């Protein structure tokens, strides 16, 4: 049976309308680049493959709903300004949420209590009163149990089109229940598989920064050192700016290297390297923010004027703007030359700079180890040497030069702090900066 002209016209109109809306839907900007795309013949020097993901602009009025679990340390050490500022930050968080958002609040000391079970934010005055009444310091620090309960509450209403986040706050060492970095990292991995990112906020000089950074890292969350309790609210504001600007989730970057191309290591991010296949997962991407995967490789040997494939890159992610799954695919190749000048002129400065910045972050981790051995002078020298090496890169592009100078300045400030602050405080600042550099997070300092 033939369809009427009216039906055909209606179907065509729907198709055109869908096509137009699909074109209008925003998407993540993805770039794949090689630090040295033209390489010397018959050589096998290290090279860097960068997969860059930049979030699209987002109208905050159209943000995705938030599923937030606040996990607050109320142990005895939190007495005074610390618990007062933590309470103020929690109240501020409640006021920033709206009726489409979900909230749960968990407190922990020797035991754990869910003072606000996961539910839509409705009666803010009642929620605020509950927080005020149930955040009195006492007992010790059951961090593992507190985080477990936070994951449990955030898991009650999971949905792929909302932003799932836990904010974990503590000022002390985990001393009740499981306490090791490995045990708490396993919790973070469980959260990551559920699509929940954990932001960790350490207050003062007494918490375990290695533990808190690991929890954040395995779940792709943020980590901040809160030196002064008065800074908590400003850090909460920054955190909420991130949470409210998430534009993509469950991002997966797969890199399939060509024959005879050797993967050396990932810089900045954890991932799987199996043979010639590399896979990296990112939990969330924010509006107008660049995150990247940086892979150090050794290309195959080649002859002058020859071109050889280097890798095939595949990216997929959940687009919170279009509510669709977007994909991307790109093949990369390198060309060979006999001219060192041609190789140098073809270098991609931005990738070269980012690889050097990530290597500097690794040197920061080495400096931390030296500090732990009591070798503070040697630690300072490691930081200074890596900063001067970064500063000496032959960069001409203004934006890249600015990025390098910002990282050098941050590094120099850390060296200065090592000279005037106690070891615990300087170590935490160094750990925070190393983490933020590796994860491409902006500084959490207010």
Key terms for this structure?
446 residues, alpha/beta, six-stranded mixed beta sheet, 16 strands
Helix content: 40-55%
Query: What does the radius of gyration come to?
Result: 24 Å
Shape: globular
The proportion of strand residues reads: 25-35%
DSSP strand tally: 16
How far apart are the termini?
69 Å
Sketch the topology as an H/E string, one letter per element: HEEEEHEEHHEHEHEHEEEEEEEHHHHH
Strand order of the largest sheet: 2-16-15-10-13-12
Give the secondary structure arrangement, pairings included.
Blueprint (H helix, E strand, L loop, with lengths): L4 H20 L4 E6 L3 E3 L6 E8 L11 E8 L7 H16 L5 E7 L3 E9 L3 H10 L9 H12 L8 E8 L10 H13 L2 E8 L5 H11 L3 E4 L5 H12 L2 E12 L4 E6 L4 E3 L2 E10 L3 E9 L8 E13 L4 E14 L2 H6 L3 H24 L3 H16 L6 H23 L2 H17 L7
Parallel strand pairs: 2-16, 4-5, 4-7, 7-8, 8-9
Antiparallel strand pairs: 1-3, 3-14, 5-6, 10-13, 10-15, 11-14, 12-13, 15-16
């Amino acid at each position: 049976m033939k369809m009427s002209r009216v039906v055909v016209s209606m179907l065509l109109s729907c198709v055109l309308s869908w096509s137009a809306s699909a074109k209008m839907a925003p998407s993540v900007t993805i770039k794949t680049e090689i630090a040295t795309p033209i390489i010397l013949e018959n050589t096998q020097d290290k090279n860097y493959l960068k997969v860059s993901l930049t979030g699209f602009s987002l109208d905050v009025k159209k943000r995705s709903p938030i599923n937030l679990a606040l996990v607050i340390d109320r142990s005895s050490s939190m007495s005074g300004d610390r618990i007062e500022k933590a309470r103020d930050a929690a109240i501020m968080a409640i006021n920033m949420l709206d009726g489409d958002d979900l909230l749960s609040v968990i407190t922990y000391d020797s035991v754990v209590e869910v003072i606000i079970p996961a539910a839509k934010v409705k009666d803010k005055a009642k929620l605020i009163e509950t927080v005020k009444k149930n955040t009195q310091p006492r007992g010790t620090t059951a961090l593992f149990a507190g985080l477990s309960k936070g994951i449990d509450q955030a898991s009650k209403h999971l949905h792929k089109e909302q932003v799932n986040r836990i904010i974990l706050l503590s000022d002390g060492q985990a001393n009740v229940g499981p306490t090791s970095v490995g045990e708490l990292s396993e919790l973070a991995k469980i959260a990551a598989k559920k699509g929940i990112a954990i932001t960790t906020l350490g207050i003062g000089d007494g918490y375990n920064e290695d533990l808190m950074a690991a929890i954040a890292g395995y779940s792709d969350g943020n980590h901040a050192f809160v030196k002064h309790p008065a800074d908590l609210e400003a850090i909460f504001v920054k955190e909420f700016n991130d949470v409210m600007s998430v534009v993509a989730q469950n991002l997966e970057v797969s890199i399939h290297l060509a024959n005879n191309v050797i993967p050396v290591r990932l810089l900045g991010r954890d991932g799987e390297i199996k043979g010639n296949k590399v896979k990296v997962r990112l939990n969330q991407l924010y509006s107008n923010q660049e995150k990247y995967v940086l892979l150090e490789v050794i290309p195959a040997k080649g002859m002058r004027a020859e071109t050889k494939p280097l890798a095939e890159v595949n990216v997929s992610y959940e687009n919170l703007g279009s509510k669709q799954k977007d994909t991307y695919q790109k093949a990369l190749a390198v060309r060979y030359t006999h001219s060192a000048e041609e190789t140098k002129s073809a270098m991609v400065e931005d990738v070269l700079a980012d690889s050097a910045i990530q290597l500097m972050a690794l040197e920061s981790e080495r400096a931390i180890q030296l500090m732990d051995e009591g070798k503070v002078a040697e630690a300072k020298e490691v930081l200074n040497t890596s900063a001067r090496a970064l500063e000496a890169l032959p960069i001409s592009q203004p934006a890249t030069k600015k990025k390098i100078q910002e990282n050098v300045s941050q590094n120099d400030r850390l060296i200065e702090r090592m000279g005037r602050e106690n070891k615990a405080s300087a170590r935490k600042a160094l750990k925070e900066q190393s983490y933020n550099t590796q994860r491409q997070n902006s500084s959490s300092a207010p």
